[in-house]
Amino acid sequence: MGVSCEQLRVEELRMRYEELLEDPSVYPTEANWQFICDHRLEGLGHLLMAKYVTSLDRDELDREELHQVAIEQFPNYLQAVDRLYALEVVYEYSQAPDEVIVDLIRRCRLFDAARLLGWLRQDRVWEVMAVLDVYQPEYEPDDLEAMRALSAAIHRLPAEGRVEERRGLFGVGMKYICPNGHVNAPDAEYCSHSGCGLNAQGLTADQVKRLEVLDTRIDALTHLME
Ligand SMILES: [Zn+2]
């Protein structure tokens, strides 16, 4: 395989960036980000994600311009590089708050049913449920299979809440006990305690809605691929 002078120059710069970005105090400039995105430089993903996460972590008043630039540019980077690489960067980064990961998956359309099923098996239910309605740019038959497996696994989540007999002020009656142990009317589908809202499977109404979106999407894809 031949290598052009331009390719060589870019690789040399990529290696230089890799070395520089290892230093936690170094943040790319706007021009650096532009170059990195324009050339879709791979191999820098986790280093760049660390810049993004640490910038977001700073109090807004303490953020300097380069932190702001990192916050703006990292999602562009994820959308510039090859999708498989972007998935690897986001799903395999372990030092970011769940909310940050979920937000990146939503904004950069990094839905990937096979990886989400892996998260579900690791009990990362909240993150999985938060991105079920996210699109991905294109779908292959394997993606549809993975989406079906993901949906089936969620539908099989064990019921941790239950309806049982409880003694109260006015005698004994049936109550819905949510997975967090709150006592509700027996016909309540979702816990009514503020900040809880779980059904017997431990899902909120919003999460169930997103699962419905996924199931509808599976049907639509099935029609298109048949
Ligand atoms: Zn509850």
Concise synopsis of the structure shown:
The chain has 226 residues and is mainly alpha-helical. The protein has helices spanning 5-21, 30-38, 45-57, 65-80, 83-91, 98-107, 113-121, 125-130, 141-155, 205-225, and strands at residues 162-168, 171-177, 183-184.
Report on this model:
It is a single chain. With 226 residues, the chain is mainly alpha-helical. The chain has a domain at 1-107. 55% of the residues lie in helices and 7% in strands. The protein contains ten helices and three strands. It has a three-stranded antiparallel beta sheet with strand order 1-2-3, with no helix packed on it. A hairpin with a 5-residue loop joins strand 2 and strand 3 (183-184). Helix 9 runs antiparallel to helix 10. 21% of the residues are buried. The structure holds zinc ion. Zinc ion is lined by residues 178, 180, 182, 191, 193, 196, 198.
Radius of gyration: 23 Å
**Which shape, going by the Cα principal axes?**
elongated
Run of helices and strands: HHHHHHHHHEEEH
Provide the helix percentage: 55-70%
Number of helices: 10
Distance between the termini: 40 Å
Strand content: 5-15%
Low-confidence stretches: none
Structural class: mainly alpha
For the biggest sheet, the summary is: 3 strands, antiparallel
Spatial strand arrangement across the major sheet: 1-2-3
| Bound chemical compounds | zinc ion
Number of strands: 3
The averaged pLDDT comes out at 95
Can you tag this structure with a few keywords?
binds zinc ion, 226 residues, 10 helices, single chain, mainly alpha
